[in-house]
Amino acid sequence: MDLDTNEAILATQAALEQASQLAVQYSFSIVGALLLLCIGWWLAALLSRWTHAGLNKVHGIDETLARFFANVVRYGALILVFVTVLGQFGVQTASIIAALGAAGLAIGLALQGTLQNIAAGIMLLVLRPFRVGEFIDTGSISGIIVEIGLFATELKTPDGLYRLAPNSTLWNVPITNFSRLPTRRFELKVGIDYNDDIDLAEKIMRDHAEADKRVLKDPAVSTHVDQLGDSAVVITLWYWTAASDFWPTSREMIKKVKKSFDENGISIPFPQVTYHGSPQMIALPERFVDARVKET
């Protein structure tokens, strides 16, 4: 056997030994990676369930919010598992983490408006300024809450229309919740003529309110003279009802007061303006008087 043949045999043996060593080394890495994946997947699911169950026990935490945080925990755990698995194969995990951070920053800038809605949705679900079934008004948006999501809130307007409002538009403005508190005060202001009986008008308004069973006894019904207007004496009626009875009682109360005022001769005057003219204007022909009145 010549020298070249011996060298080839030795080179082949060396290559086989190196290959076997690499196979043994990477086989352990592959087995370890598979074990890490299985255990990590199981732990991620377990942590997600624990998070969901724990948040459901906290008073005031919405189901949507509990699921959101449970998914955040699950996917965060899976990302750590994958980075650890790549580290088993000698991959530089620091560069991967840096790349993930850069990608997260880029996605955050691209989805700035969406992330703002998510942040607002989380705050709405945590602080609960309104709940499903409650009627709210923000000045520009009003309606009954149908569903509160992470991105937007669904409402039904009083005239039966569907409205989808981004959460950021509901979080950055004052919210008036008409359904949250159990009772509400109704205020009725009526102007009567200066020649009418004020005491009689107040008695009529109080009697109608006190006779209605839906009106609460405490706080008591009250009336008072609110102001002396240009054309009328304004009388105000205050009474309290349950929030669910506010609208029907207010509509009926206005109708009853108007009918009783008519029956008792109490008038609700229209706005009036008194014009004062000089004697010179009175002495002029009618066409000139009309012209001067229009100019003034």
Automatic annotation (TrEMBL):
Sequence ranges assigned to domain Mechanosensitive ion channel MscS in this UniProt record: 114-180
Keyword DNA-binding assigned: no
Gene Ontology CC annotations of this record: plasma membrane
Gene3D superfamilies named among the record's database cross-references: 1.10.287.1260, 2.30.30.60, 3.30.70.100
Cell location: Cell inner membrane; Cell membrane
InterPro entries, alphabetized: LSM_dom_sf, MS_channel_1st, MS_channel_C, MSC_TM_helix, MscS_archaea/bacteria_type, MscS_beta-dom_sf, MscS_channel_2nd, MscS_channel_C_sf
Topology of the protein relative to the lipid bilayer: Multi-pass membrane protein
Domain Mechanosensitive ion channel transmembrane helices 2/3, chain residue ranges per copy: 71-112
Location of the Mechanosensitive ion channel MscS C-terminal domain: 187-268
Molecular functions (GO terms): mechanosensitive monoatomic ion channel activity
Keywords, alphabetical: Cell inner membrane, Cell membrane, Ion channel, Ion transport, Membrane, Transmembrane, Transmembrane helix, Transport
Keyword Kinase applies: no
Main location: membrane
Transmembrane segment boundaries: 26-47, 68-90, 96-127
Quaternary structure note: Homoheptamer.
Record-stated family: Belongs to the MscS (TC 1.A.23) family.
Task performed by this protein: Mechanosensitive channel that participates in the regulation of osmotic pressure changes within the cell, opening in response to stretch forces in the membrane lipid bilayer, without the need for other proteins. Contributes to normal resistance to hypoosmotic shock. Forms an ion channel of 1.0 nanosiemens conductance with a slight preference for anions.
Protein name, per record: Small-conductance mechanosensitive channel
